[in-house]
Structures are given as structure tokens and as C-alpha cells.
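User: Please predict the structure of the protein below. I'd like the answer in C-alpha cell form so I can feed it into my own downstream comparison script.

Assistant: Understood. Taking the following sequence of 448 residues as input:
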Amino acid sequence: MSEHELVVRADRALTPEGERPVTVVVDDGRIIDVLSGTDVAVDARRELRLADDEVLLPGLVDSHVHVNEPGRTEWEGFASATRAAALGGVTTLVDMPLNSVPPTTTTDHLKTKKAAAEGKLAVDVGFWGGAVPENTGPDTIGALADLWAEGVFGFKSFLSPSGVDEFGHLDPEHLDTAAGAIHAFGGLLIVHAEDPTVLDSAPAASGREYADFLASRPDEAEHAAIALVVDTARRTGVRAHVLHLSSASVLPLIAQAKQEGVPLTVESCPHYLTLAAEEIPAGDTSYKCCPPIRDSANRDLLWRALQDGLIDCVVSDHSPSTPDLKELDTGDFGTAWGGVAGLQLGLSAMWTEAAGRGVPLADVVRWMSAGPARVAGVRGKGTIAVGNQADLAVFAPEEPFRVSVGELAHRNPVSAYDGAELKGRVRRTLLRGAEVTADSVDGHMITR
């Protein structure tokens, strides 16, 4: 009998066939067998047996992370972001094309991004490209095909200002041009969907009251923008993905589009599913993000859509910044940077909320592993299955802990989850069968 690289024995494991006791056999970083039961005779150089209170999960896939390096590395960087990911059970992330400088909108910029990531990765990292006015004109549209050929997972666009000058938003004409080009080579268009006209007509945000900020980003802004995305996908045939859905008012429109066969997928984020507008303290700008966290009734409808399969996946939209940009001293929601830092805590936050709603852990993990892998086109990850990479997380679902922002691994000590009482802690993370440690730099840069 040959000796294998690793066996993992778990009385509880979340597999595509359901939760069951398994022995996972690993060679060359891949799962070569998933055997029923934990007492199967298998020789291996290393063995990991889970404790009675632990569950074996597939490594999570987070397809919406702003790493920001190079250019704004003081906000976040590859070393800190991937370490935080690993501590949260995330073994693969896909980096957004902003807020790095330069943004990932040309192949040269992609090379710059990859050079910045070299030798710093604790987990695997892929890259989104960006669709901006500069590369969606008649003379520059070929830049998108060039980026696709380099292996980016798709193309992010904004329909309203992004918050950074170097990543402009697309008007309907540029969106249409980008969609046609992306459809021609079989790519994926992912969209921050808020309508600029609606935003311009809403009351301006200022001051410490969260309700005033919420009024400045009304549901109608998401509804109008997503209607444009649906219409564009219907006309051009482009595969379109709605980023960070926060407004439940748009769900009937999404349901109708999917029923018609429009090639549309949708994500939401832990902060929209676990936090509520009426619970946000005055002046606590760590909660500010765009689109905004809405009320608890809205949150309930998002959960129902998740359970009905209308929302395809849950990802972090980890969008950190330095503390000064969050205006923590003044608490002014109008001027503070918008973004929630939660990469390390997504699974625990989601499971805490799900458990209170009677939602099984298996559903939460599927929304955060297989779901993002399917939507983004990340191959060989997201499930505990033969042939997939041995990316695994060991999770203690009943272990409680209190979040202390200073103990989190992302670069700056700002998070809306600071002080939260959560349930469920990731105790180990394995990347291709090797345990990720504080010094690990074994992550790969991946392509689709």
C-alpha cells in the first residue's frame, strides 16, 4: 500500500453529498479520494483528525476583496489581506481592480499588480480586470480582450462614481460597448449598480446620523441601475453579475430576469445580512459602505432570497482604508470613506446570524465557497471533492468569541464588527493540504 501525503479524518464534513463522516486523502495538494467513515485504513505521512466539536469545510472562495496594493498599500496589502483571509477560512480570493494605483485596466497594470503580490500570498489570489471609460471606447476596447487573454476572471464596472479618480464610471453607452465586447469573447461583466442620476437627486449625506447617510443612497438607486444591467444583459447576451446587493426592493426584478433566462447572477455580503441600519450608532462610520446597510426588514428579505436561490453567493466586499479616512474622530458619514472591513469574520458573522434563523451551516458554507467559485469561474475549488485542490478549513461552530479589532489581521484596526459577540471560529486552514501559518507565503496567483 502506497503512503499518501495526507489524510484528514472528520466525523463531520460538508461535502456535495451532504454532511457526513469522511476520510479525505490528499496527494500533490489535491484530493484523490473522499472515503466514507473515519476508521478507513489509509497510510499517510501526515494525518489530521478533527476534534469532536469541529467540522471540516471546503476552503471559502471570496471573489470580492479590495487588496489595494500597489499604490494604496497603507490601506491594505497582499500580505495582510491574505493572512486575514486564511484566519477566516478563505483559501482563495479574487482581487478587485481598484483601489490600487494603477488600477487593473490594462495588461501592463496587471503585470504591475502581480509583481506587487509576488512572494506575499498566504492563500491563492486571482484578479478581476476593470472596465472604465479609457478602455471601452471604439479605439481602446481591445484592452478588455487582452486582459481576458491574461486570465482575469472578468471585468468590474461602476455605473456611478467609484470614489477614486483613476477608476471612472461607465455611462450607458460605454456600458453597452463593454458588454458587447465582453460577450464576444465569453467574459463576465460585474457591476457596482447604483444610478448616478438617482444619487444626485437624493439629499446629500452629512453629519453623524446614519439615517441621513441612508437617505442619500436610496433603494431606487440600486433598482434603476440593476434594471439597466438586466436590459443590457438581455440585449447583448453578456453574462452579468450584480455586486453587493443591499436592496431587497430589487428582488422581483431579479427574479423576473432569471425566469426569462437572462444570464444574470447576484451576490450579497455578510454586512447586509447580519447588520441593520436601526442598530448603527451615531457617528460610527466603520459601518459606512455603498450601497448602504439597510433596515432589518430588508435584511429578512435578503435572507429569504438567499434560501430561495435568487442570490447566488455571499462574499465580503472587504474594502478597508486607513482610520483617518473613516473620519472616526468626527463621525461624519458624508465625508468618511465607504467600505466595511470584514474579510476575516465573514463566516463567523454569517453563521451566527444563520444559526439564530435555523439555517444550516451547510447552506452558509455553500453560499461562501461553491457559490462564488461557480459565479467567478474559479476551477478546482469550493467543494470537498475528488480532483479539487485540498483547500480546507477546520471550523468549530459552537465556539463563541468577542471580536477585538486590534487582534484582526487586516492592516488597519477598523471594523464594523468590533465588539461583536460571534459564534463559530476557524481553527485551521489548509491550502493544498499544507496548514497556513503566520509565516506562510505558499499562495499562488491563479487565472480562470
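That's the full C-alpha cell string. The longest strand covers residues 4-15.
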